[in-house]
From TrEMBL:
Residues 39-158 form the Pyridoxamine 5'-phosphate oxidase N-terminal domain. It comes from Acerihabitans arboris. Gene3D superfamilies: Electron Transport, Fmn-binding Protein, Chain A. PANTHER family: FAD-BINDING, PUTATIVE (AFU_ORTHOLOGUE AFUA_6G07600)-RELATED. This is Pyridoxamine 5'-phosphate oxidase family protein. It comes from the Bacteria. Signal peptide: none annotated. Pfam families: PNPOx_N.
């Protein structure tokens, strides 16, 4: 197989047939697990997830954004619809700008201690319906908007990546001090225009008071 793929001296894969020869046939469970709606077997994963990653695309570029709240923060409105509140952030709104231009989105749900992840592909629209915002009030504050996501496909990803990374293994956790602080990063990137020490000192309280 290796000779078949590399016999022209080009180590780039540029054609689907070469890619398929390299990786081989898809195992039947890998296709059978995909549904066009939120199957009852997949509901518990969404309801137990306190964290998800939202992927979007637009003419300005790609965006992958972390989203988190207490478990079940992404609501299942029905078997083909998810509701995702957009909490307070840095106001870059890269994901939302992309959705206005290209509604296609992908979600990756992660659950602490669980190896499998859940993937959802679909399309999103941005809503500021007051009744919908009120459903997602936290600490007396409403989200700025809510994404209504129409589901196109749902499937689980096996636990290999989590196992290889030892993501949930306490032994792999490192102390925050081993990496550059947010203030020191901003100081370096801004060529000292931002006072990194002052930023770091103010950050814990700012996070606490602006969480929602």
């Amino acid at each position: 197989m290796q000779n078949d793929i590399h016999n022209d001296g080009d180590f780039r894969i540029t054609r689907p047939e070469r890619l398929e020869r390299l990786y081989g046939a898809v195992a039947p469970p890998s296709t059978l697990k995909e549904t066009e709606y939120i199957h009852r077997a997949y509901r518990p994963f969404i309801e137990a997830a306190p964290f998800a990653v939202l992927a979007t695309a637009g003419s300005a570029g790609l965006d992958v954004s972390p989203r988190g709240d207490p478990a079940g923060f992404i609501h299942i409105e029905d078997s083909r619809t998810l509701l995702l509140p957009d909490r307070r952030g840095n106001n870059r709104i890269d994901s939302l700008r992309n959705i206005l231009e290209d509604p296609r989105v992908s979600l990756l749900f992660l659950i602490p201690g669980i190896g499998e992840t859940l993937r959802v592909n679909g399309s999103a629209e941005i809503s500021i319906d007051p009744a919908l915002l009120a459903r997602f009030a936290m600490a007396g504050n409403l989200p700025r908007s809510v994404l209504r996501i129409k589901v196109a496909s749902v499937f689980f990803q096996c636990s290999r990546a989590i196992m290889r990374s030892r993501l949930w293994d306490p032994a792999t956790q490192i102390e925050r001090a081993r990496l550059p602080s947010t203030g020191s990063i901003l100081k370096a990137i801004s060529n000292d225009a931002i006072d990194g020490d002052a930023y770091d000192q103010a950050l814990p309280e700012r996070l606490k008071t602006t969480l929602y």
